[in-house]
Amino acid sequence: MTYSSMAKSELCRIRPENDCCRLAEAYGLLLYAKLLSEGHDTYTTDHQEVARLLGETAAAVCGIYADVLTVPKSTKGSGYRYVVKIPNAEQKKLMCAAFAGHTGGILEKECCVNAFLRGAFAVCGTVTDPMKDYHLEFLAGSPRRRDILAGAMKRVGIRAHELNRNERWVVYVKDVDDIMALMTRMGAPYAAGHVAQTRAVKGWRNSANRRVNCDQANIDRTVSAAEQQIAAIRRLMGERGPDAIPPELREIAALRLENPEMSLRELSESLTEPISRSGVNHRLKKLMELAEQK
């Protein structure tokens, strides 16, 4: 089951207690399933619970009995699709009449806005697995349905964006906090919690990766510096013999030749008489300067 399907299953288990919220949820379901639009009398989905909710809501709120059909997908062995069908024009008329004179006040209360968004998301919404991306969207379709959705989200403080995808309007949310807030408002706290948990895991991984990258960069710098120091010491000894290295630099030169992986701190601790890191660095630089002298 996809993350989006899991979120819809959580939402489909909710049954509003108040008449106003039942009406608002029904409006969201039927409007964005396009069953209130002229010329549309069927809605098709891969999600059985959404189809069942749509049929039950049409019966409970509008007093009509829609057919909920199970049909095989076109590809053999690929499962089923679920079709909600308004059986005739009379039933369609009754369904539309249930909202006549009410649409202006359906979204007055915040609880009703939440119920409306829940219904709309069930039939036209998707949310991406937060491990891949933070993205929640409604395929609103028409400019009118886009404006109703965008206005509803604005009323409850959700920052929504709009785009036209193949002549169909999409209302979407990218901010992770807004996605969690919207999922919670619609009634999917488990799905919202999954987003929060995923964000925490991503943050930990990013922090760990930064530390690893920083450590690797430090190692690379140490190795590069050590290679230059060893090359200088060998050049100095090869051209002028061991006596070319001053007595006070011979121990650090020998340590660096034998331990190319050691950091400055480790070199300082390995000296017969330990000195500071800056002292070790100064001696190694002195060796490199001597190697450059002709």
Descriptive overview:
It is a single chain. With 294 residues, the protein is an alpha+beta fold. It has two domains: 185 residues, Endonuclease I-creI; 90 residues. The chain is built from eleven helices and seven strands. Strands 4-5-7-6 form a four-stranded antiparallel beta sheet. Strands 1-3-2 form a three-stranded antiparallel beta sheet, with helices on one face. A hairpin with an 8-residue loop joins strand 4 and strand 5. Helix 10 packs across helix 11. The protein is rod-shaped and about 110 Å long. The mean pLDDT is 85.
Structure class:
alpha+beta
CATH architecture of the largest domain: Roll
H/I helix tally = 11
Q: Numbering strands along the chain, what is their spatial order in the largest sheet?
A: 4-5-7-6
**CATH topology annotation of the largest domain:** Endonuclease I-creI
Tell me the layout of helices and strands.
Elements: H1 3-12, H2 19-32, E1 42-45, H3 48-62, E2 67-72, E3 80-85, H4 89-97, H5 110-124, E4 125-127, E5 136-141, H6 143-155, E6 161-165, E7 168-173, H7 176-186, H8 189-240, H9 247-258, H10 264-270, H11 277-292
Antiparallel strand pairs: 1-3, 2-3, 4-5, 5-7, 6-7
Helix pairs in contact: 2-3, 2-5, 5-6, 7-8, 8-11, 10-11
